[in-house]
Write a structure and sequence with these properties.
about 80% helix; 9 helices; about 160 residues; about 0% strand; mainly alpha; globular
Length: about 160
C-alpha cells in the first residue's frame, strides 16, 4: 500500500498528468478514495508555491538572455496586459475562473498551468492557492468517479 501511495504522490507532481493521472492510477490499483485524494492533493500542490514565486522571476531573468528573451518578454507583456484587463472585468470572479479552469479535468488545465497564470497575472498568492486547491480536489473527484464507472452509470440511468 505504501508503494502505491508513493506512486500517487509522484504521479500527481508531474505537469500535465497531475492529480488526474494519479487518481486513475489509484482507482486501477484499488487504493481507497480518501487516501488517494489526500496523497494526490499533497503531491499536486507541492510545486504550486515554487511555480507561483519562481515563474515571474525566471521570466524577468530570461528577458535579458540571448535565446529566450523574446518568449520571456512575450509572456511578461501579455501577462501584465491580460491581468489588467481581467481584473477590471472580473474582479473577485478571477479566482472563481481560476478554480473552474483547474477543475476542468483535461491535460493542460491543472495546478501547474493555473498557478503559472496566477503568477503572470500577479494575483494574490493565498487566494490563488485556495482556488487552485479547490480545483484540484474537484478534478480529482471527477476523474476518480469516471474511472470507477460512476459517471457512465449516471448517464445510463438518466437516459
Amino acid at each position: 500500500m505504501t508503494k502505491k501511495l508513493l506512486w500517487i504522490f509522484f504521479i500527481s507532481m508531474l505537469p500535465i498528468v497531475e492529480i488526474r493521472g494519479a487518481m486513475v492510477y489509484a482507482s486501477a490499483n484499488n487504493v481507497p478514495l480518501l487516501w488517494g485524494m489526500l496523497i494526490g492533493i499533497l503531491g499536486n500542490m507541492l510545486p504550486v508555491p515554487f511555480i507561483f514565486y519562481l515563474a515571474r522571476k525566471f521570466l524577468t531573468w530570461g528577458k535579458d538572455q540571448r535565446y529566450i528573451s523574446k518568449i520571456c518578454v512575450f509572456f511578461l507583456e501579455r501577462g501584465a496586459a491580460a491581468g489588467r484587463k481581467l481584473t477590471e472585468k472580473a474582479g473577485y470572479g478571477l479566482y472563481v475562473a481560476l478554480f473552474v479552469f483547474v477543475a476542468i479535468p483535461l491535460p493542460g488545465t491543472g495546478a501547474w498551468t493555473g498557478t503559472f497564470a496566477a503568477s503572470l497575472l500577479d494575483m494574490d498568492f493565498k487566494k490563488s492557492v485556495i482556488a487552485v486547491m479547490g480545483g484540484v480536489v474537484v478534478a480529482g473527484l471527477l476523474i476518480y468517479a469516471a474511472s470507477i464507472g460512476l459517471i457512465s452509470a449516471w448517464f445510463a440511468i438518466t437516459t
